[in-house]
Amino acid sequence: MIKKILVSQPKPTSEKSPYFEIASKYGVEVVFRPFIKIEGLSAKEFRQQKVSILDYTAVVFTSRNAIDHFFLLCKELRVTIPEDMKYFCITETIALYIQKYVQYRKRKVFFGSTGKVDDLLPSMVKHKTEKYLVPLSDVHNDEITNLLDSKKLIHKEVVMYRTVSNDFKSDEKFDYDMLIFFSPSGIQALLKNFPDFEQKEIAIGTFGPATAQAVKDAGLRLDMEAPTSQYPSITAALDDFVKKHNC
Questions:
Q1: In what order do the strands lie in the sheet with 154-165?
Q2: Cα–Cα distances in angstroms (integers) from residue 28 to residues 4, 106, 173, 209, in the given order
Q3: Which residues form a coiled coil (predicted)?
């Protein structure tokens, strides 16, 4: 029976989150507790990469974290971003987030519709004379590099922030019946915090194929997975999983 679930993400800001509906419907406790946290590189660490931001005429953003740490680093480095800098974002939501730092102008902000980099490529190819800077985490794959290379675009990937373990305190209880992860880094953080972790009856759910594979690679049992054709979201999968175990 599932009584207490750890969701390794920050607590939703909306009261209408499906997580709260699940908690109420099945009488379970849902705790939001990230296993990982994001921290920015210092100006000194960034300079070691020998990248000059003003050598580039466009920036590719894959997340809000990338936007935050790009502009924070620019401020720390005292770099003034030119008015004609172009921004390419994988979703409209991420594109709109730029308004936190600069005035939003449609003529210089472009975004995809699916959240995948390849959906953004046609817009980038139309601006093939641009020099693209791609802010990334220290943990990333080469998908963007390969896609931009395939279109012969001028680009440079640069690390601006890192993913670190959000360590558990010694007096922090770990009495969960189910753990839900959203990245391989979360699995690594679990094993770092609890090197003698024994899964036993604890259920593990994941979002995304890379996270699911990380569970298996760690020798753990994967009990729930999303997205699938039946469960497009993690909350849809969780609702059904709890229903089957508690009803």
A1: 36-40, 154-165, 131-137, 58-61, 86-89, 109-111
A2: 6, 45, 17, 26
A3: none
Asked if residue 179 and residue 75 are part of one domain, the reply reads no
Residues 90 and 144 in one domain: yes
CATH at 130:
3.40.50.10090
Handedness of CA 59, 151, 208, 96 (dihedral sign): positive
Count of domains forming the chain: 2
Structural domain containing residue 9: 4-35+166-246
- pLDDT at residue 74, as a whole number: 97
Mean pLDDT calculated for residue range 182-188: 91
Shared domain check, 200 and 137: no
Q: How far apart are CA 47 and CA 77, in angstroms?
A: 9
| pLDDT at residue number 170 | 85
Start-to-end CA distance of the chain, whole Å, equals 9
pTM above 0.85, yes or no: no
Nearest to 79 by CA among 163, 158, 164: 158
The predicted-structure confidence for 56-102, as pLDDT tens digits, reads as follows 999 999 989 999 999 999 999 999 999 999 999 998 889 999 999 98
Q: How far apart are CA 63 and CA 157, in angstroms?
A: 14
What is the structure's pLDDT at 164?
A: 86
Domain boundary among 137, 163, 189: 163
